[in-house]
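Page 37, top half.
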Amino acid sequence: MTSINYMLLWFGAAVSIAEIITGGLLAPLGFAKGATAIVLGHLVGTTILVLGGIIGSQTKLPAIMTTRISFGIYGSYLFAALNIMQLIGWTAVMIVAGGRSVNQITKMVWSFDNMTLWSLVIGALIFLWIAAGNDGLKKINSAAVALLFVLTVVLSGVVFTDSSLFTKQPAGDMSFGGALELSVIMPLSWLPLIADYTRFARKTSEGAWGSWIGYFAGSCWMYLIGLGAAIVTGDSDPAAMMLAANLGLAALGIVVLSTVTTTFLDAYSAGVSCTNLLPDVSERKLALAMAVVGTALAIVINIEQYESFLYAIGSVFAPLFAVLLTDYFFLGRQQADARLLVNWGAVIVWAVGVVMYYQFVKLDLVVGATVPVMVVTGVIYAVSARFMVGWKSVKAAKVVS
């Protein structure tokens, strides 16, 4: 895959209802401060994201398999299980969000109300997107992103032509550090899966720059649309914006397409993580199964507490990748040891990082929680690694008679 392929892939991933809704959470800061938090948070978050992608393109390993470098085989099983849970959760959250928006549109336009049906439709499209395979994916995704780009311009016109956007007084309570953290967490949520795609990069630099530009541009844009809509109307729901713009039938296409181009990445990478536990089953079959599970979960469970879900992801994966990035880029450990079962020292430092994350969230620092947690975790690991050399479980050596 080339830099253009990655640019389109990650721009399409970023154009989603979840990103718009999250941008709306920053409305209490007002537009100027909110936009500053969005840009700064994405500069940091997207750069961390791409560092994980570089590991994938250089080792040619999926994201969860790269954790064997630091944590060993059994350690990677733990993180594979956690990643599968968060990706199935994301799949369900995205299907619910997309289904609700579609249902709101059909209720307003045609008085048709069936949330379950729309969840099934979106889930089925995600299933077909995965079934198309890598070659089909590149062609479909290119066409989809071109359409989404045009439609995103229309959404921008709805929000940014309202003159009250820049003069309306902020209402609500949110710190700059809290807003910055919500801007860092979104790209961080993709960190456990970016290597699943950059491992196919023609060149490391193409995978890195294409992914960085595509995601940074798309995600910042979505956040700004959500921020602007929440300030002007008090509602960051994309469906409401599109109905206000009299898009009608086109609004259905926007919501469905943006949901599918994002959510298929979650379902596919859940399948890739499953191969770490079930190596004899193909990635695509497992990904299709994950799409079915995510769809079923979306129908059965009413998923709320979206902001808490984002923080939970940050708490697990920020310290995890702080350890891996420290090993790979600073300590020079770039190959997994086939005999290493568990690196207990790395697991302990990761657990300390998880606890620290919630403490830093409470401190509400102006730099957020993710950056200081990753820095402190990385330093602790780098300093303690030399003292924990023997804190490892390894496979017993075979005795040759």
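Page 37, bottom half:
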Amino acid sequence: MSTAELTDQVVEFLSTGTRTGKIAWVSKDGRALVTPIWFIVEDGALVFNTGLDTSKGRALQRDSRATIVVDDEKPPFSFVQVQGTVAFDDDPTDLLRTASAIAERYMGPDLAEQYGKRNAVPGEALVRLTPTKVIAAFDIAD
């Protein structure tokens, strides 16, 4: 399945449990780099936080194109690949809100505020990846 939007089935898959995203970008010297991220789906975009001065942060500010892959490593295996462009938001209120929501997903409600505050500090930014292409394959081994 290929589309430019996040379907209900894709959003459900992306939002289930604590699956991490693997974000890929191109470094300044042309190398392809990948790292895991925590994220949430919000208003048709994948939302995550990153440091503005990290390799990923600098690269995405220079070239807004990125791809995030999320997979289920258990049979019957599934994955979603979201290609798109990113936009940065360093508004402290938005950053704290999303950092706390992301923390709640991955660390649970008891630690959401603590991790949200830890990840919503100066130098951090909220990043929204808006899809330009979505590829999904569910239950591949069936």
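Margin note: The chain has one domain: 2-137.
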